[in-house]
């Protein structure tokens, strides 16, 4: 068996060993095209199906940023819950940068095998916290302060309750993260449909799944702001203020 194919099979075997379904050389249809994926991992958590795409690179040099960017675009096109880029010889600094603020993890099979469940949980929570912080920063960058303590928020298209509601969801997620880090369960990860009660998780894994769903909705809503400068057209009585 060729080294690159053996590496794929080893990766799939690892995910199966932790109780997940994994297949190699899978063709997956995306929005724009069909993609050949090295390993596809599937599992159910909290009554929902999840899909991870795994890219395996068995080569004698570090992975470049362009490789990670190409894989990230495939993950987005397919709509996978997570992308995992595996390489045993490391990644260039640009490759790590390309995975930030995205649902792509760059690591090695050796690191996965060495990681304990607690370490895996810690990594996932830290990544979630980074996403929450990034969303808060984006809202802050799109807020203009006026008068004495007043603010005008750029509105989020299609989000019931506007920007203040988005901030409420983010604050709830931040509180839930603090709770699970302290081992305090159940922990809230979102609002119920009536917006008057919380969605809570009784376990760490359930919290991560629920929090990811909430965070993905927020990121999708805020995506229209990315890379665009904004200034309010005018200050009027109808503006959103605090």
Largest sheet: 5 strands, mixed
CATH-defined topology of the largest domain:
Trna Endonuclease, Chain: A, domain 1
> What order do the helices and strands follow?
HEEEHEHEHHEEHEEH
Helical amount among residues, as a percent range?
40-55%
Provide the low-confidence segments as ranges.
235-242
How far the N terminus sits from the C terminus, by CA atoms, comes to 64 Å
Strand sequence of the main sheet, in spatial order? 1-2-3-4-5
- Count of beta strands: 9
DSSP strand content = 15-25%
Oligomer: single chain
Categorize the overall geometry: globular
What structural class do helix, strand and pairing data support? alpha/beta
Mean pLDDT: 86
Q: Tell me the radius of gyration.
A: 20 Å
CATH domain class name of the largest domain: Alpha Beta
The total of helices stands at 7
**CATH architecture type of the largest domain:** 3-Layer(aba) Sandwich
* Count of discrete domains: 2
